[in-house]
């Protein structure tokens, strides 16, 4: 490596394991990864990027942490996964040119930082979208199967030790599944449902074909497609454009007895409209890993709705997430150093 070889000084802003720090350096030797593991909120479990909230820095440690993140050309992780800390370091460090968020929905954190247009143009932001695709697609499949096999009835009968008459369960290979959003998660879900024999519809803006999707549906025709779907899988990010997209008109058109599985963002579904559809039978079951407000408030009726499965935004969590994000970061570092487009760059208008 010659002295003219470009280098990228990267500060680690979250608790990335030392073995993964070393992996990034091996995958992209032009990266100088600076870190101090004594300064991070320690992880309490796999991919716990925010870390233990009980950890507090001394004033001296906070100064050291700020100096660390302010010394770099790029950041692995939004510091402390805190939008306010991101705002501070963007303004304190004029050399900062790239920030990689560990969350797939990191655009929301960038939006919350309330940066100026000039700051959003100066610094490139990327997310970890795609690393959770297969795990979330599995939950989406699980949710649809739980509805098709009437998991609530099975659990209720088991709790009563009741051996009922037999009943017919729905089969995936006889169902039409509408995947709302064909990004990384949606594409993975489409492949899985297609492999099990379902007819797969998928919403699109681009019109580009996607493996496993039998028919593309323009997003403007979403409500009409609802009438064909035995199950609806939501994978869209939370943006101004997607907020409440599945609302009263969608559920008014939905095929009676449809199953809903949401692994995108909770704001995409109007929860009041979903509850009304559940209570009158238009929707027979909903498996929800995400909600408009998280944690889900204790007084939310979704907790007690018999045909709702509440999952605490945990479907994506997997110990392999950390190494996938490290590999993605190293690949994007190469792209940046070689002048190539960055993967998963945040749209700073819609922030996804």
UniProtKB/TrEMBL annotation:
Q: Which organism is it from?
A: Pseudoclavibacter chungangensis
| Entry protein name | D-2-hydroxyacid dehydrogenase
Q: Which UniProt keywords apply?
A: NAD, Oxidoreductase
Q: Which GO terms describe its molecular function?
A: NAD binding; oxidoreductase activity
Taxonomic superkingdom: Bacteria
Instruction: Respond yes or no to whether keyword Oxidoreductase is given for this record.
Output: yes
Every copy of the D-isomer specific 2-hydroxyacid dehydrogenase NAD-binding domain together lies at: 144-315
Q: Which InterPro entries match?
A: D-isomer_DH_NAD-bd, NAD(P)-bd_dom_sf
State one Pfam family annotation.
2-Hacid_dh_C
Q: Which SUPFAM superfamilies match?
A: NAD(P)-binding Rossmann-fold domains
């Amino acid at each position: 490596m010659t002295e003219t070889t470009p280098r990228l000084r990267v500060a680690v802003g979250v608790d990335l394991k030392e073995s993964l720090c070393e992996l990034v350096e091996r995958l992209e030797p032009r990266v100088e990864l600076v870190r101090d593991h004594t300064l991070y909120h320690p992880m309490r479990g796999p991919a716990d990027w925010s870390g233990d909230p009980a950890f507090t820095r001394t004033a001296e440690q906070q100064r050291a942490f700020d100096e660390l993140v302010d010394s770099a050309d790029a950041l692995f992780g939004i510091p402390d996964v805190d939008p306010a800390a991101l705002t501070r370091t963007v303004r304190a460090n004029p050399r900062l040119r790239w920030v990689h968020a560990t969350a797939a929905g990191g655009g929301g954190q960038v939006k919350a930082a309330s940066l100026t247009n000039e700051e959003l143009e100066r610094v490139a932001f990327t997310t970890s979208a795609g690393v959770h695709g297969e795990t979330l697609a599995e939950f989406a499949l699980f949710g649809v199967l739980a509805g098709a096999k009437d998991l609530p009835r099975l659990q209720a009968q088991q709790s009563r030790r009741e051996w009922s008459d037999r009943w017919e369960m729905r089969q995936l290979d006889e169902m039409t599944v509408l995947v709302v959003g064909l990004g990384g998660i949606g594409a993975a879900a489409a492949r899985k449902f297609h492999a099990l024999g379902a007819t797969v519809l998928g919403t699109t803006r681009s019109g580009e074909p996607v493996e496993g999707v039998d028919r593309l549906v323009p997003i403007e025709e979403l409500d009409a497609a609802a009438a064909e779907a035995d199950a609806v899988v939501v994978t869209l990010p939370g943006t101004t454009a997607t907020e409440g997209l599945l609302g009263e008109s969608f559920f008014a058109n939905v095929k009676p007895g449809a199953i809903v599985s949401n692994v995108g963002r909770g704001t995409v579904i109007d929860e009041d409209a979903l509850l009304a559809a559940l209570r009158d039978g238009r929707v027979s079951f909903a498996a929800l890993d995400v909600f408009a407000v998280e944690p889900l408030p204790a007084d939310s009726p979704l907790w007690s709705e018999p045909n709702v499965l509440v999952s605490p935004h945990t479907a994506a969590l997997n110990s392999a997430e950390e190494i996938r994000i490290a590999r993605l970061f190293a690949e994007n570092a190469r792209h940046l150093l070689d002048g190539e487009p960055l993967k998963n760059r945040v749209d700073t208008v819609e922030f996804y």
